[in-house]
Specification:
Layout (H helix, E strand, L loop, with lengths): L4 E7 L5 H12 L4 E3 L8 E8 L6 H6 L2 E9 L1 E3 L8 E4 L6 H10 L2 E5 L8 E2 L2 E2 H6 L9 E14 L2 E8 L5 H12 L3 E11 L2 E2 L4 E2 H6 L2 H6 L13 E4 L1 H8 L4 E2 H4 L8 E7 L5 E7 L4 E7 L6
Length: 301
């Protein structure tokens, strides 16, 4: 069936992101679906799933900053950087909160991070984790990521709980390992929970068990509308005449048409004023020009 919207799924531990997507898609009997960035099976938390026309905007969430809460286990290093791997080494833990805070400061802001071998990044068409499972280690170039916020929530040796707001492409497993290495005791990630993707949070999310327990009609009601992904963009309202021109891909001189303009240039969500229907996104340019960006089909009620 044509299903359009966004499910804020609180992914359970042990499920891959793709398995969770397939399960939700089957429960909704949806034609088209996609997720917005993977979570490791051992991780839990926010996994926005897009259906129908919402998939056209899923790339925005792939590019968005992410927020996590994690528990770093000092003194034990594993080959995967988390609880699913084999223990490589152990070491006594003798660090203070003051030492931890001093090390955390080094990881705030732009940093270089080497992607882990146990990741879905591909080399010659194969994900790195396949090489790792075969015992093959490959050289990986460090990538620039940004840690916008890194907060010490609690420390009860050997467990450090942190909150991280970071750019796309950041591996929290690697961050935990690097913090442990900088302190001289080593570490792996004991728990990982994603609490935010862009402007989306766990507020209003449902667990997989809760979603399964819903009746068929209730499941579609659990979805955010398509424009739930676009709440950070200013809204532009078009008359019926301008709506037709916009949907035909025409650039519109809104200033000359008497349409209220956003305060700044950039991306905007565009609606038909008479119906309140979302038309898609556009780019507000100089002199009040609106250029169509991503258009959506007429959504069924």
């Amino acid at each position: 069936m044509p299903v359009h919207g966004v499910l804020l799924l609180d992914k359970p531990v042990g499920w891959s992101s793709n398995d969770a997507l397939i399960k939700a898609k089957r429960l909704l009997n949806a034609l088209k679906a996609g997720h917005t960035g993977t979570l490791d099976p051992f991780a839990t938390g926010l996994l926005p799933l897009c259906f129908g026309e919402a998939t056209k905007f899923s790339q925005d969430l792939l590019e968005a900053d992410k927020t996590y809460e994690a528990v770093v286990h000092f003194g034990i290093v594993t080959n995967t950087g988390d609880t699913e791997g084999e223990v490589l080494s152990t070491k006594a833990v003798d660090v203070t909160p003051e030492q931890i805070e001093a090390v955390l400061e080094k990881f705030r802001g732009p940093i270089a991070q080497v992607p882990p071998m146990h990741s879905a990044l591909k080399r010659d068409g194969k994900p790195l984790y396949e090489y790792a499972r075969a015992g093959i280690m490959l050289e990986r170039e460090a990538r620039q990521v940004t840690i916008h916020q890194l907060e010490l929530l609690s420390y009860e040796a050997p467990f450090l709980r942190i909150r991280v707001l970071c750019s796309k492409g950041t591996y929290i497993r690697v961050l935990g390992e690097d913090i442990g290495a900088a302190l001289g005791c080593g570490a792996h990630l004991n728990q990982l929970r994603r609490t935010g993707v862009g402007a989306l949070t766990l507020d209003g999310s449902v667990t997989l068990d809760e979603f399964i327990a819903l009746e068929d009609g209730q499941r579609t009601q659990a979805l955010l509308p398509v424009d739930g992904l676009l709440t950070t963009f200013p809204a532009v309202m078009l008359t019926d005449v301008l709506t037709q021109r916009f949907l035909h891909g025409q650039r519109l001189a809104l200033g000359k048409e008497g349409v209220a303009l956003p305060a700044e240039s950039g991306r905007a969500r565009v609606y038909q004023e008479s119906s309140g229907r979302l038309l898609g996104t556009g780019l507000m340019q100089e002199f009040g020009i609106l250029a169509p960006e991503r258009l959506i089909s007429t959504l069924s009620e």
